């Protein structure tokens, strides 16, 4: 599994694509947080990073599928998946190696955003006077969200040999998980009946809960369940494709 992890990690940064993807993520966040007037933290009148945690999930909808789209799609396209399956590694090791490598890249993309925290902390009326508990919880929520999107992206890449198709399927599926259930709960036919349960089925509900700074075990279990489900589906998809080839 370690060899798969290293190969996947190096492959992402072996071309300019990986650096550009992370750079665009950071630039997009910086523009929304410090330049565009409607979302600028400098015009908010108070020091917090709420806009970062509100905007990041939508930027993740594009960034993470771009990170994961080639994970298995390129293996199928080049024919190396069949070769990989003959090595003394289990299906779970293959899936986990890919997932952990992509997850590490998500962490690397998030680390520079700590600069925003430092900047806002110093620009506040009383330097350092921030709600650190809420911000810490929001970062944990963002990491769990990123890992969940990564698991969805890995699954999307496992069902096709076309990286572009994997990218589009990942965007659509991540959007449904993040916003689809929440939007569906607002349909009049569900109001006062199943709306709460529909919201709970979506990622947005649990992400918003953790972002308040309260780490609830139910939210953690939800995110872990989404990851486990998507990685399990990835394993099943890989096995089916190899057996059919």
UniProtKB/TrEMBL annotation:
<dbReference type="InterPro" id="IPR051449">
    <property type="entry name" value="ABC-2_transporter_component"/>
</dbReference>
<keyword id="KW-1003">Cell membrane</keyword>
<feature type="transmembrane region" description="Helical">
    <location>
        <begin position="163"/>
        <end position="181"/>
    </location>
</feature>
<feature type="transmembrane region" description="Helical">
    <location>
        <begin position="94"/>
        <end position="118"/>
    </location>
</feature>
<keyword id="KW-1133">Transmembrane helix</keyword>
<keyword id="KW-0812">Transmembrane</keyword>
<feature type="transmembrane region" description="Helical">
    <location>
        <begin position="12"/>
        <end position="35"/>
    </location>
</feature>
<keyword id="KW-0472">Membrane</keyword>
<dbReference type="InterPro" id="IPR019860">
    <property type="entry name" value="Motility-assoc_ABC_perm_GldF"/>
</dbReference>
<dbReference type="GO" id="GO:0005886">
    <property type="term" value="C:plasma membrane"/>
</dbReference>
<feature type="transmembrane region" description="Helical">
    <location>
        <begin position="55"/>
        <end position="73"/>
    </location>
</feature>
<feature type="transmembrane region" description="Helical">
    <location>
        <begin position="220"/>
        <end position="238"/>
    </location>
</feature>
<dbReference type="GO" id="GO:0140359">
    <property type="term" value="F:ABC-type transporter activity"/>
</dbReference>
<feature type="transmembrane region" description="Helical">
    <location>
        <begin position="138"/>
        <end position="156"/>
    </location>
</feature>
<protein>
    <submittedName>
        <fullName>Gliding motility-associated ABC transporter permease subunit GldF</fullName>
    </submittedName>
</protein>
<dbReference type="Pfam" id="PF12679">
    <property type="entry name" value="ABC2_membrane_2"/>
</dbReference>
């Amino acid at each position: 599994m370690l060899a798969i992890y290293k190969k996947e990690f190096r492959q992402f940064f072996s071309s300019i694509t990986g650096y550009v993807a992370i750079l665009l993520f950071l630039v997009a966040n910086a523009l929304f947080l410090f330049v565009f007037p409607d979302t600028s933290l400098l015009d908010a009148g108070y020091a917090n990073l709420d806009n970062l945690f509100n905007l990041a999930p939508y930027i993740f909808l594009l960034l993470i599928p771009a990170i994961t789209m080639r994970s298995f799609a390129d293996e199928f396209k080049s024919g190396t998946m069949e070769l990989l399956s003959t090595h003394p590694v289990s299906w779970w090791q293959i899936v986990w190696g890919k997932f952990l490598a992509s997850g590490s890249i998500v962490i690397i993309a998030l680390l520079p955003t700590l600069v925003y925290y430092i900047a806002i902390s110093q620009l506040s009326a009383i330097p350092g006077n921030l709600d650190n508990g809420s911000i810490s919880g929001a970062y944990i929520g963002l990491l769990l969200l990123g890992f969940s999107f990564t698991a969805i992206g890995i699954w999307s890449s496992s069902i096709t040999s076309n990286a572009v198709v994997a990218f589009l399927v990942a965007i659509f599926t991540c959007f449904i998980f993040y916003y689809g259930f929440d939007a569906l709960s607002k349909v009049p036919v569900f109001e006062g009946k199943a709306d709460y349960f529909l919201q709970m089925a979506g990622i947005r509900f649990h992400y918003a809960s953790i972002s308040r700074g309260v780490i609830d075990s139910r939210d953690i279990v939800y995110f872990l369940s989404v990851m486990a489900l998507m990685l399990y589906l990835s394993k099943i998809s890989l096995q089916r494709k190899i057996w059919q080839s």
